[in-house]
Amino acid sequence: MEDTASRGIQAFIADVVERGGKAVRLTHSRRNPVQVWGDDGTSCIVRVRSKLSGDWQARKQDESLDDDDTGSQFWVFVDLASSPEEFFVVPSSEVADDIRAEVDLWMMDTPGRTRTGHHAIPLSRVAHGRGRWDLLGLAGEKDPSRYSDAQRATTAATLRADAVARASARKKPAKATAALEELIDTRLEVVADFEGYRLVGRFDPDTQTLEIMRGPMQGRRFPDPTTAATAVASHISGDIETHDGWEFWRTEQGDRIPMGQNSIR
Predict the structure, then answer these.
(1) pTM for the whole structure
(2) Rg from Cα positions in the chain
(3) Looking at the domain assignment, is residue 160 inside a domain?
(4) Residue-wise pLDDT tens digits, 185-223
(5) Has residue 238 got a pLDDT over 90?
(6) Whether 147 contacts 17, CB under 8 Å
(7) Do residues 198 and 1 touch, judged by C-beta distance below 8 A?
(8) Is 198 part of a structural domain of the chain?
(9) Total tally of structural domains belonging to the chain
(10) Quick one: which of 131, 160, 128, 163 has its CA closest to 12?
């Protein structure tokens, strides 16, 4: 199943094409940059943030344009819960100023905090950017005939291939015994959803070890669920994260994983 980020990018690219432009996902950054060409041929870089519910997620460090390795001129916030999807276009400088102001208030509330970590962006702070396709040099009205089923399928396939390639690049070399271990693997399968990623792991109730089988850090094995949760969340966000693994990981049915006699919690 496609993750939230890929679904949002695919929806965004489709709308750009239907409005007379062109869009290509860039792969040099994990911050989901897309290069967009308007119908007049002008080009810009946008950062695409997508959500299925709740708020969009950014980082407190996004208060500084110097921390943006994409070189973006705009952010596009995609609401996948709307039908059709809604898009909110906001200049990067405005997003940075807005985050900085919010972080300033957050710092004042409790002195000693650090300006790092997740930062939620609710609809109210980007609502003024709804449908501002003109900022990207695109038409307000769209023509669905411009984006064929073949193009749609190609875009989806490309995004899936990108996701597989990124996961493979992070995967440790498999050991010769991996195939045999898979055949007799009796460990409990656990899952977690974090920042648009569906993570799948295997948990051993006897040893408390947890191995990530699918998603970022695929192939890594950790001594306990909390170490695994903290490591993979920090890897995805790019910040120092701390998570309770017994809450972070769940069975496919949504149940808590068994702690066992050797639990270090």
Answers:
(1) 0.59
(2) 21
(3) yes
(4) 678 999 999 988 889 999 998 899 999 998 888 889 999
(5) no
(6) yes
(7) yes
(8) yes
(9) 2
(10) 131
